[in-house]
Specification:
Helix content is about 30%, strand content about 20%. By secondary structure, the protein is of the alpha/beta class. The N and C termini lie far apart (about 45 Å). The chain binds glutamic acid (GLU).
């Protein structure tokens, strides 16, 4: 692991890039460049069911069109399966991971946490004989895990109370996002994670995994997620316009304003980025977990 600071942008290629994607990319890019860190791009293409053909390339073309140049080679999670397998085996041998035969339906009537039904640990002490193995779960502990987010402040979660033992390998055979993201962030020497606030509640699961695996915990900065008029995240919303890469300046002005930054008028794409790198102030970002796209568009 290197001592050089690294940031990353880690999109899932599940559709055309939209304004929310741009905001995430820009915030992670600016934070990395402003702090002298390398900026890496990782395509999170593990979930082959949600994968959209051509979306990863379109993502990279969009970053290029907006002048956000990444360092090194783009990493693809689909090429990292053997690394996840190895870590899963280690965690299993150490007794942290166990096979589970439950479906969500088995505990849907139980206790609810912020992200849905809390897994009650049914298979923790062994899977009942009439149940086939479906997924693999990681044991969590009854303790508060806290971190200081650069935008959202100090956030704590008790995984045992709020989430329960969580899935690290899914019933459909794919490795879970939570495992892959932790293994890859450590592998790539990521020291700063800048991403949408929809992942705030995943952070404690990731910190728990980092601690079990002896990995360092990066710095976290969660920016507001952009919502469409239907209240859904833009990636899932009907009213997310595709990004027009021919006029990057217009969207860059909008994105910077959404991040609380007011550049001088009429700058070119590259001058805008240079200005923003120099002026980058995470403290200017609103301490909220979502913003409406309509409000952002009507700001200028
Ligand atoms: N691939 C995830 C997404 O597009 C982001 C993962 C992360 O930044 O930790 O939602």
């Amino acid at each position: 692991m290197s001592t050089v600071a690294h940031g990353r942008f880690a999109p899932s290629p599940t559709g055309a890039p939209h304004f929310g994607t741009l905001l995430g990319a820009l915030a992670s890019y600016l934070h990395a460049r402003a702090t002298g860190a390398k900026w890496l791009v990782r395509i999170e293409d593990l979930d082959q069911v949600r994968l959209v053909e051509g979306a990863a390339d379109e993502m990279l073309r969009t970053l290029e069109a907006f002048g956000m140049t990444w360092d090194g080679q783009v990493m693809y999670q689909s090429e990292r399966i053997s690394a996840y397998k190895e870590i899963l085996e280690t965690l299993t041998v150490q007794g942290h991971v166990y096979p589970c035969g439950c479906t969500r339906r088995d505990f849907i009537d139980g206790k609810y946490g912020p992200e849905g039904p809390v897994y009650p640990g049914t298979c923790r002490s062994g899977i009942s004989e009439d149940k086939p193995v479906r997924s693999y779960r990681l044991k969590v502990e009854d303790r508060d895990i806290c971190f200081a987010d650069l935008v959202q402040g100090r956030i704590c979660q008790n995984l045992s109370r709020d989430i329960g033992d969580f899935i690290v390998k899914r019933a459909d055979g794919f490795f879970a996002y939570q495992l892959a993201v932790v293994v890859d962030d450590a592998y790539q020497g990521i020291t700063q994670v800048v991403r949408g606030a929809d992942l705030l509640g995943s952070t404690q699961r990731q910190i728990h995994l980092q601690q079990l695996l002896g990995y360092p915990t990066p710095e976290y900065l969660h920016i507001p997620v952009v919502l469409g008029t239907d209240g859904k995240k833009l990636s899932k919303s009907e009213d997310a316009p595709a990004i027009d890469i021919r006029q990057p300046e217009i969207l860059l002005y909008q994105a910077l304003s959404a991040l609380g930054h007011q550049p001088p008028d009429s700058l070119s794409r590259d001058d805008l980025l240079q200005w923003a790198i120099k002026d980058w102030q995470p403290a200017n970002i609103l301490k909220v977990t979502s913003l409406s796209y309509e409000t952002i568009q009507n700001q200028d």
